[in-house]
Amino acid sequence: MHWKISKEFDFCYGHRVWSQTLDTEFSLDGCLKCRHLHGHQGKVIVYLQARKLENGMVTDFKHLNWFKQFLDDVLDHKFILDINDPLFETLLPHYKDKQNLIKFNEGYMIPDLSKISNKEQHLIEMYEGYIIVDFVPTSENISAWLLSIVAKKMTKLNVEVSHLEFLETPKSKSTFYA
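User: That's the sequence. What structure does it adopt?
Assistant: C-alpha cells below.
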C-alpha cells in the first residue's frame, strides 16, 4: 500500500527533433515538421509516492517549489538543443568546437557567455536562449531527464517519484516511470 500525490507545472520551450523519421503508411505523409525549429507550451506532472506518511502527507506540495524554480529559471522560454544535432554548428557558430560550455549537475549545458562578451547584443541574447543537452529533445527523452532530476532531489526527503508525465501539447503526452 502507498499514497500518491501529483503536482503540475507549465513552461514554454522550443526544440527540434532532428532524428525524426516517419512511416507514411501510418503518418499518411512524409512531412517531417518536428525537424523544424518550433516551440510548445509544455506541461509536467510529477507523481510522488510514499509507503509511510510523514505528518499525514507524502510530502508537502511546497517541497516541489525548487522544481518550479528550475523550470522557470532554466527551461522557460529557452530552446533545448541536442549537442549532437547536425545544426549545432549553424545555430551556435561561436561554439562549434563544443568547448566553452558550462555544465550543470542536472545534465544540461549553457554557452559560456563571457567568451563572447565583445559580440553584438543580439548574439548574446540568442546564445543565452539555448539549453544544451546530450539527447534528442523528444517528449520521451525530456520526461526521462526531468524525472531523474526530481528523483535525485526528492530522495533527500525519502520520497519516491512514481512517474512523470510530460505534455508537449494538450493532446500529446509522454509518461516515464521510475
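The chain has a mean pLDDT of 95.
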